[in-house]
Amino acid sequence: MHTTRPREHANRIARLETLAERQQAISEVPKAYQAMVKTHLCIIFRNRKAEREQWQKR
Predict the structure, then answer these.
(1) CA dist 39 → 1, 5, 7 (Å)
(2) CB of 41 within 8 A of CB of 14?
(3) Which of 9, 23, 30, 58 has the greatest CB tally within 10 Å of its CB?
(4) What is the pLDDT of residue 29?
(5) CB 38 within 8 A of CB 26
(6) How far apart are CA 9 and CA 16, in angstroms?
(7) pLDDT digits (tens, 9 = 90+) for 24-50
(8) CA–CA separation, 50 and 53 (whole Å)
(9) Which residues contact 36 (CB under 8 A, 6 or more apart)?
């Protein structure tokens, strides 16, 4: 049986369009994984921001 990893939850949540959808999806993640998922989301969004800033400098 495949267990969904925190990174997989975060990738799925990051693809959602609205903040409300993301908050709902985070609440559906098992409590034991929520802190790790939130950390992964911070990394994902920080990387996206850095990529946008790199493109703006060009």
Answers:
(1) 25, 13, 9
(2) yes
(3) 9
(4) 95
(5) yes
(6) 11
(7) 999 999 999 999 999 999 999 999 999
(8) 5
(9) 6
In this prediction the pTM is: 0.83
Q: Closest Cα to residue 31, out of 6, 8, 14, 11?
A: 6
- The residue type of 36 is M
pLDDT-based confidence at residue 1 (cuts at 50, 70, 90): low
Q: Are 45 and 53 in contact (CB under 8 A)?
A: no
Question: Which residue bears the tokens 């098992």?
Answer: 30
Q: What is the DSSP letter of 51?
A: H
**Which structure tokens are listed for 35?**
């802190």
Rounded distance between C-alpha atoms, residue 57 and residue 44, angstroms: 20
